[in-house]
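Re-run requested by the PI after the first attempt was lost when the workstation crashed. Everything re-entered from the original request form. Ligand of interest: zinc ion.
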Amino acid sequence: MNDPQHDFERFREHLSVHGNGKLVRAVAARAAIGNWRAAMYSRDDVRQLLECWEMTTADLELVDQALATAWRVRAAAYAPYSQFQVGAAVLGSCGRLWCGANVENSSYGLTLCAERAALAAARAAGGDAFLLLCIAADTEEPISPCGACRQWIVELAPHALVAMIGSNGAERWCTPSELLPWAFGSRMFHRHE
Ligand SMILES: [Zn+2]
């Protein structure tokens, strides 16, 4: 666990459906660093690691922007009942960003999570090749998507990475299938000849 080289390679492999361009490498690198930082390494360690991958912190700018957007958009949440604000941002392979926040309802079961709001906004704007879904909330450990959102993520962003962000910069990065192994999918009701 927390081996950045191993994470970088497996995340790149997961994202390889999007090619191996600069942004794909940046997402894989930022993901590997995000998991590794949980083990409290220094900025110099990060710089050295990026050097090995022939990158600089400037290459990670768009990914950092996606994380910051998820954090910032929490303020747009409609959460009068729980007061629990969650933000989400989706990064497309074109470099575009879409975002969403949770929207509650007095009929509690109708509440929409930030992840689903962001994915719906991204789809509605024509996005589809998603590299990254960031989720942010003011929680001690990185915020984790609920079961319904996991199902949405494996269906709409199966080739993305998921970044979970808590307060104090706590991060956890993984693939959608790690969040929801053996997920239900359309292959189950499409009979193969
Ligand atoms: Zn949810």
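Saved to the shared folder this time. The mean pLDDT is 95.
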